[in-house]
């Protein structure tokens, strides 16, 4: 008789989130679902890893695999973004540790960068983390870190903090789908009722719900398709990423057998 596998589950919700994808020129697009690099960054921040600690970040990456269920995919938002920055040549012989330092140069030396930045509004995700048995990070350590993170957590960008408790929990199940069915999360309205108009509730998507997972995970549902996604961190110092395979399916509900 199978004793199942352990999974760490938590939820992510915010009025705004942004999951970086391949950026070209002035366009900073967002994927519809959280990227592996974003989820690794969140776990790294929770455990207190600094971005410069590439050895430990690599160990964390080797320790886990992810699956993501979109309970609500949210709505598309685009921001026309302008920012003033000094050229690198101006900062060559002066420190610029903070944004204030950057803007302390003469205003006629500043230049304006224009870009468009994409976001998802009111998206709600359930994240499933599986241990690979490698690396130095176990699920209980990560659960405790999510309960009391060392560094602030955000949903892809610093301007996008989580707006609901993550409610991390470890579930023993035979598959990703079964772990999602067993997990218990408070309804969003429980926490947001004071912010919503009288008689209104948070608008959530109707099933089927998209589910994606990484190679090596037992999903409990057949994949409809498999695609490559360039979000496996290679080096944070150079902002380089490798491709990985991501499997995708849809499920009819969290109470019934999956429907594809």
Name some characteristics of this structure:
disordered C terminus, 18% helix, alpha+beta, two-stranded antiparallel sheet, 9-stranded mixed sheet, 260 residues, Alpha-Beta Plaits
Question: Could you characterize what this model shows?
Answer:
There is one protein chain. With 260 residues, the chain is an alpha+beta fold. The chain has a single domain (5-75, 121-251), classed as Alpha-Beta Plaits, CATH 3.30.70.2660. It contains 6 helices and 11 strands. Strands 1, 3, 5, 6, 7, 8, 9, 10 and 11 form a 9-stranded mixed beta sheet that branches. Strands 2-4 form a two-stranded antiparallel ribbon. The radius of gyration is 20 Å and the shape is globular. The two termini are 28 Å apart.
Brief digest:
The chain is 18% helix and 36% strand. It has helices spanning 36-47, 54-63, 99-102, 139-147, 176-182, 188-192; strands at residues 5-17, 19-20, 27-28, 30-31, 64-72, 75-85, 111-131, 169-173, 209-214, 225-235, 240-251. Residues 256-260 have low confidence and may be disordered.
Helix content: 10-25%
Assign the structural class, choosing from mainly alpha, mainly beta, alpha/beta, alpha+beta, or little secondary structure.
Answer: alpha+beta
**What does the average pLDDT come to?**
86
Whole-number tally of structural domains: 1
Helical segment count? 6
CATH architecture verdict: 2-Layer Sandwich
Rg over C-alpha atoms, rounded to the nearest angstrom: 20 Å
For the secondary structure, the number of strands is: 11
Indicate the proportion of strand residues: 35-45%
What is the ordering of alpha helices and beta strands? Answer: EEEEHHEEHEHEHHEEE
Distance between the termini: 28 Å
Give the CA-based shape.
globular
What's the story with the biggest beta sheet?
9 strands, mixed
Instruction: Quote the CATH topology.
Output: Alpha-Beta Plaits
